[in-house]
UniProtKB/TrEMBL annotation, chain A:
The lineage of its organism: Bacteria, Pseudomonadati, Pseudomonadota, Alphaproteobacteria, Sphingomonadales. This is Altronate hydrolase. It comes from Sphingomonas spermidinifaciens. GO terms for molecular function: hydrolase activity; lyase activity. InterPro entries: SAF (IPR013974), SAF_UxaA/GarD (IPR044144), UxaA_altronate/galactarate_dh (IPR052172). GO terms for biological process: D-galacturonate catabolic process. It comes from the Bacteria. Residues 12-83 form the SAF domain.
Automatic annotation (TrEMBL), chain B:
GO terms for molecular function: hydrolase activity; lyase activity. The lineage of its organism: Bacteria, Pseudomonadati, Pseudomonadota, Alphaproteobacteria, Sphingomonadales. It holds the Pfam family GD_AH_second. It comes from Sphingomonas spermidinifaciens. Residues 141-386 form the D-galactarate/Altronate dehydratase C-terminal domain. This is Hydrolase. Residues 5-129 form the D-galactarate/Altronate dehydratase second domain.
């Protein structure tokens, strides 16, 4: 039986979903209990611990951006609550010419 | 394991013997494509450059591609009035011992006559390439292997990319040349890369390359980050970078090379795709095949392409091995994928096992087995304008 989500480095405060998780699921990763409140797809991130706005998000043991709002353990961590510390990401509705 | 390669006059060995039909301006594209379509032979492949203005980078790329060890002969298709230096390109391929013919559409008498002239030229070049072919045993240590990731998602950095990293460690230890890219996807990893540098000069060159990439992408207004990356769970450029960087494995970084430059010795190299100075001509990597073309111009015999969302591309000249990082994508697109690295996520295989599988697959493909994209007929190629990128002395590895 494989893990539901994995912590890639002991320093990390997020975990990566090994399969899509559904609201209502509860499971434990490295001693932290995560309560899933929305559908989160394979490859996406969940908060391992409660996070505050401004916290660095750590994955692979390195910072991958900062929280823009608070999140509970088990919350989906993505563009709606964190951002790059380097340059903004864009979606398909982006303007065609930022330069 | 050894297999039969093609020995070229410069001493390099190839794993394929492609005949390239090269259009030198968009105006010659249709004629060149008709020739390749009518040949209907996977060995006869179409590459080209669309622009009419001269560009040193494009000429350097074309010289490197037409003298690549996987290439046995070349037919150049020119409209006649474009700027591309067809004489210099033909001379370079001829000096490298390749049969070369040039068809100039304005001299040959238009579309129909040029297609017929091109078909005859391809037949002659192919016969001559066969006559000149020298088959010799080839070893793992003689390979140049590139890697790229495209259509990355949250699985790429934990399955496919580190599995390729394990394969790279094995290949570097065997004395092969391994090339990883690209500097825009190393943003955030420059400190760690510098610690792996073979010399202080290489460390400085690695950091400088990433800093230049960051400046360049900022000016372009976008990072090397697509909407599909975000849909697949990646949130930031630096998160994507950390995953992409895992492709490089763990060995010392011997140097930084630029497009169309050959690695000066065995080992692991970063391919820097971002020109120096202020941005010019637009994005440094408009799409994955632009980078695959640059890896091939640096001598790559095979490229390992890690994808999470599911790319289908292959390439002209050098086979592409597709490593699918995401088990759900693999289930949907297995016909296009050579390796199912998603088994790492589902607990069915370890990184080391998939790494060993990739090395075995490389040797099989080098020995002649078709990749999935080759079998499906994929021969993508794209080359556009770029400011030229001369190598600096700091880019060369220190002699031990």
């Amino acid at each position: 039986m494989s893990a539901i989500a994995i912590r890639l480095s002991p320093a990390d405060n997020v975990v990566v979903c090994c399969r899509t998780v559904e609201p209502g699921e509860r499971f434990t990763v490295d001693g932290h209990t995560l309560a899933v409140t929305e559908r989160v797809e394979l490859g996406h991130k969940l908060a391992l611990t409660p996070l505050a706005a401004g916290d660095k998000v750590l994955k692979y043991g390195m910072p991958i951006g900062s929280m823009t709002e608070a999140a509970d353990a088990g919350a989906w961590i993505h563009l709606h609550n964190m951002k790059s510390d380097y340059m903004p990401a864009h979606l398909r509705d982006a303007a065609g010419d930022h330069a | 394991m050894s297999w039969q390669g093609w020995l070229r006059p410069d001493g390099r060995k190839g794993i394929r013997d492609a005949i390239l039909v090269v259009y030198l301006v968009e105006c010659a594209h249709h004629v060149a494509r008709r020739i390749v379509d009518r040949m209907d032979d996977p060995r006869v492949q179409l590459i080209g450059f669309p622009g009419c203005y001269p560009n040193d980078y494009a000429l350097a790329m074309m010289k490197a591609l037409t003298t690549h060890p996987n290439v046995g002969g070349v037919v150049l298709m020119s409209l006649g009035c474009e700027s591309f230096n067809r004489e210099a390109l033909a001379a370079s391929a001829r000096e490298a011992g390749r049969p070369v013919e040039t068809v100039v559409i304005q001299q040959a008498g238009g579309t129909r006559a040029s297609i017929e002239a091109g078909l005859a030229a391809v037949a002659r070049v192919q016969d001559e390439a066969d006559r000149r072919a020298v088959r010799v045993p080839m070893l793992r240590s003689e390979l140049v292997i590139g890697t790229i990731c495209g259509g990355s998602d949250g699985t790429s950095g934990i399955t496919g990319n580190p599995a390729v990293g394990r394969a790279f460690d094995t290949l570097v230890d065997a004395g092969a040349v391994c090339l990883f890219e690209e500097t825009g996807e190393m943003i955030g990893c420059e400190g760690h890369m510098a610690e792996r540098a073979a010399s202080p000069e290489v460390a400085d060159a690695l950091v400088a390359s990433v800093q230049q990439a960051e400046r360049y992408y900022r000016a372009m207004g976008y990072g090397s980050f697509s909407p599909g990356n975000a849909e697949g769970g990646l949130t930031s450029q630096e998160e994507k970078s950390a995953g992409a960087y895992a492709k490089s494995g763990s060995r010392a970084i011997a140097g930084v090379i630029r497009p169309a430059e050959q690695a000066p010795g065995p080992g692991l190299y970063l391919l820097d795709v971002v020109p120096l100075g202020a941005p010019k001509f637009g994005f440094p990597n408009i799409v994955d095949n632009a980078e695959i073309g640059e890896l091939i111009a640096c001598g790559a015999h095979i490229n390992l392409f890690v994808t999470g969302r599911g790319s289908v591309v292959g390439s002209a000249i050098s086979p592409v091995i597709k490593v699918c990082a995401n088990p759900d994508t693999y289930a949907r697109m297995a016909d296009d994928m050579d390796v199912n690295a998603g088994r790492i996520l589902t607990g069915e295989a370890t990184l080391d096992e998939v790494g060993a599988e990739i090395v075995a697959l490389i040797e099989g493909v080098a020995a002649g087995a078709q990749t999935k994209s080759e079998a499906l007929g994929h021969q993508e190629f794209v080359l556009t304008y770029k400011a030229s990128m001369p190598a600096g002395p700091a880019c060369l590895p220190r002699v031990a």
